[in-house]
């Protein structure tokens, strides 16, 4: 028994698939593969959306999320507002 067939046998015994017919085993494996594909596909979409929406701006100097600008722009605006007396 080579390494691959041992792993397949271990999978069948661990998951309880050894007691199923061949068509039930294939059906269950297809369902498991579809569920794994769904999880990984949506996980990658969520990670890409997180990167594009939040981390990309933070990593590339886009600034803070709450203000929508970078820190230099915000600090310049606060200095101008303090000079003009708008902060009182």
UniProtKB/TrEMBL annotation:
One Gene Ontology cellular component annotation held by this UniProt entry: endoplasmic reticulum membrane
Principal cellular location given in the protein's record: endoplasmic reticulum
Membrane-spanning intervals of the chain: 26-43
InterPro entries: Ser_palmitoyltrfase_ssu-like
Subcellular location: Endoplasmic reticulum membrane
Keywords attached to this entry: Endoplasmic reticulum, Membrane, Transmembrane, Transmembrane helix
Membrane protein topology class: Multi-pass membrane protein
Chain coiled-coil ranges: none
Identification of the protein by name: Transmembrane protein
Organism: Apostasia odorata
């Amino acid at each position: 028994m080579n390494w691959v067939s041992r792993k397949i046998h271990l999978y069948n015994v661990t998951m309880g698939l050894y007691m199923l017919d061949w068509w039930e085993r294939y059906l269950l494996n297809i369902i498991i593969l579809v569920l794994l594909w769904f999880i990984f596909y949506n996980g990658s979409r969520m990670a890409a959306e997180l990167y594009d929406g939040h981390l990309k701006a933070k990593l590339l100097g886009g600034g803070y999320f709450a203000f929508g600008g970078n820190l230099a722009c915000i600090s310049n605006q606060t200095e101008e507002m303090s000079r003009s007396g708008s902060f009182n």
